[in-house]
Specification:
Number of strands of chain B: 0
Order of helices and strands of chain A: HHHHHHHHEEHH
Number of domains of chain B: 1
Oligomer: heterodimer
Low-confidence stretches of chain A: none
Number of domains of chain A: 1
Number of helices of chain A: 10
Number of strands of chain A: 2
Structural class of chain B: mainly alpha
Radius of gyration of chain A: 19 Å
Helix content of chain A: 55-70%
Number of helices of chain B: 10
Shape of chain A: globular
Low-confidence stretches of chain B: none
Helix content of chain B: over 70%
Distance between the termini of chain B: 8 Å
Distance between the termini of chain A: 28 Å
Strand content of chain A: under 5%
Radius of gyration of chain B: 19 Å
Strand order of the largest sheet of chain A: 1-2
């Protein structure tokens, strides 16, 4: 695609805009391409974890795509995986140190999943499939788009898990907000603890896929 | 006894797929037939068994706070643990490459079975996740870490073989069209995860 992007093209041409909007729905990295599932499912017990994780992944995708795309003509083909891993691992160390310094609680809850951004298939996939063959600017947009697509799924899953599981929503910087009113509990409503357990995120993602494919029939697998 | 406990705990209670979703990408991508699932599952056991002890030694003698004290007094207070991500992934990538070459040289039959899966494994989160959890759990010696690697690999193996067997059968069932393929695999994994929750609190 990069060959067709001319210098005179505006920064946000139609094609470049599609790089950002397509990953939100039609080629969503999590639900359609089925990449980067492990962290998407595991950090969704609270909204703030999901939001911080999405920002971290978007950051790594943004800079990883940019750096690899700038170096794409210098990297020998045979060792490209190692080069990509080193670039990504260095970025993740930066993210990890920043999280530890500024949002220590969230960083504790995310535990190993910050480190696992290194092996997040979305990042390796985008570096391999897009950044290695495209100029820096489209690669940056592609990174942002995929990061947002990933974040969208994370936030939606976390929203349902936290709301139904503990009746609260936690936002970074704001703290825990109780959403279900006290009157509901006195009337006999109970939080569904099942939604706090790992398997429920799988079911929620499956329902998300169901709705998404129902609305976009061309995505249905034969 | 400690060893059996670690094995059971890592294989069933803290199962990599059902509790932590480690390695879900390859788990969903390669679980269409039982045969390939067995291939990838064995490769994961193998690589975990090799990399976890090596990463354990790296952690104890290089990265941990005070781990460098064997080099002399002035190194005793050094803490290199912020380097662990890049060191672990470098070890994993090079070990996988080395294992691939060794297997190709000495056991062509095994290479035929595992060969194509080995490069995939370098970027499988199960391997790095195993190493990072090993770091968190602070095992007492290298034997415990090895058993932990074996147990987690075994848990991953069971999970992928089970889902592959179910997916082979479910092809012939009447599934709502938008759920076909990945959607159904998610639901199945969720149900299996619920079943595996039955191991919770199981203590030897």
């Amino acid at each position: 695609m990069s060959e067709e992007v001319k210098k005179s093209e505006p920064l946000f041409s139609k094609k470049n805009k599609k790089l950002i909007t397509d990953p939100l729905n039609k080629i969503n990295p999590v639900t359609i391409q089925v990449l980067g599932i492990c962290s998407a499912l595991a950090v969704t017990v609270q909204m703030d974890n999901a939001i911080v994780m999405s920002i971290a992944v978007t950051f790594v995708l943004f800079f990883g795509n940019m750096l690899i795309s700038m170096m794409r003509n210098l990297i020998p083909g045979r060792i490209r995986i190692i080069v990509q891993l080193v670039v990504v691992a260095s970025l993740v160390i930066v993210v990890d140190q920043v999280l530890k310094a500024f949002v220590y609680d969230v960083s504790k809850q995310l535990s190993v999943f910050v480190g696992l951004i290194i092996t997040n298939c979305i990042i390796m996939g985008r570096l391999e499939a897009f950044a290695l063959g495209n100029k820096p600017w489209p690669s940056i947009l592609d990174g942002i788009g995929n990061g947002l697509g990933y974040g969208l799924v994370l936030v939606i899953v976390a929203f349902f898990k936290e709301l139904l599981g503990s009746g609260t929503l936690t936002f970074p910087g704001i703290g825990k907000l109780t959403i279900i009113p006290e009157a509901m509990y006195t009337a006999g409503y109970m939080d569904n603890g099942l939604f706090l357990l790992p398997p429920s995120s799988l079911i929620i993602v499956a329902i998300y896929i169901w709705v998404q494919k129902f609305r976009n029939p061309e995505l249905i697998e034969a | 006894m400690e060893y059996i406990n670690i094995f059971i705990r890592s294989a069933f209670i803290d199962n990599m797929i059902f509790t932590f979703f480690f390695g879900m990408c390859s788990y969903l991508a390669v679980s269409k037939t039982v045969k390939t699932a067995v291939g990838l599952g064995s490769a994961v056991i193998f690589v975990l068994l090799v990399t976890i002890p090596i990463n354990y030694l790296l952690e104890t003698f290089v990265l941990k706070e005070g781990a460098l004290s064997w080099m002399g007094e002035e190194y005793a207070t050094m803490d290199l643990s912020f380097l662990s991500f890049i060191m672990f992934i470098a070890v994993i990538a090079s070990i996988v490459q080395l294992v691939e070459m060794l297997v190709e040289k000495f056991s062509p039959a095994l290479y035929g079975a595992l060969g194509i899966f080995l490069p995939l494994i370098a970027v499988n989160c199960a391997i790095l996740g195993g190493a990072l959890f090993m770091q968190q759990k602070q095992f007492a010696n290298v034997g415990q870490a090895t058993v932990y690697g074996l147990g987690s690999g075994f848990g991953w193996f069971i999970a992928i073989v089970l889902i592959a067997a179910i997916r082979e059968k479910i092809k012939y069932s009447h599934v709502p069209a938008p759920l076909k393929g990945v959607g159904m695999a998610f639901i199945l994994t969720g149900l299996m995860g619920l079943a595996f929750l039955g191991f919770l609190g199981f203590e030897l």
